[in-house]
Amino acid sequence: xxxxxxxxxxxxxxxxxxxxxxxxxxxxxxxxxxxxxxxxxxxxxxxxxxxxxxxxxxxxxxxxxxxxxxxxxxxxxxxxxxxxxxxxxxxxxxxxxxxxxxxxxxxxxxxxx
Amino acid sequence: xxxxxxxxxxxxxxxxxxxxxxxxxxxxxxxxxxxxxxxxxxxxxxxxxxxxxxxxxxxxxxxxxxxxxxxxxxxxxxxxxxxxxxxxxxxxxxxxxxxxxxxxxxxxxxxxxxx
Lengths: 113, 115
What we know:
The complex is a heterodimer.
Chain A: E1 3-5, E2 10-14, E3 19-21, E4 24-26, E5 32-38, E6 44-50, E7 56-58, E8 64-68, E9 73-78, E10 87-94, E11 102-103, E12 107-112
Parallel strand pairs in A: 2-12
Antiparallel strand pairs in A: 1-4, 3-9, 5-6, 5-10, 7-8, 8-9, 10-11, 10-12
Chain B: E1 4-7, E2 10-13, E3 19-25, E4 32-38, E5 44-51, E6 57-58, E7 67-73, E8 76-81, E9 90-98, E10 103-106, E11 110-114
């Protein structure tokens, strides 16, 4: 069965420190990988995606993610966190053979001033 | 865990007809639901935010008369694509806010093909 795991329900970091939000997946083949963010009272916003190529993908708002095929991971990172980064983050995969997304359960990021 | 059911998963219709897509929260009450659309080879695009008992809030560029959203109860929101045209062919997905931690849960999506 296809699945996406975000092992941390909540991540707390101090402003200015680096942040990592973890994501691992179980999908056959070479899936497309995505990160989305949900700010309070808003829908999803696209951050970045990995289709093929360089394992380090750069996205919106200074975020980046590293694709690791052997570990089937796609962790989201940012070198220096901002208080305004506090939000819910969702990892998603789309199997190469299909259209439907599989979303992780989400990780709540809190950046403390 | 909370489940969002979206139906149908795939629909093919003739140009000019209307298509209704349902999004149900199965074990929680969802005061807010979101509707997204995915264009080929692109990411999800937020179309509108649906709040139970009130009019939906549409994102810029989304035609509210074409994409009718109704959120009549705490467990059901519908998206009706009126007078569908081939350019409306796309993947539509809904999500609902709910559960103890007010998390976001997603339906499995609807692939619409307009001939």
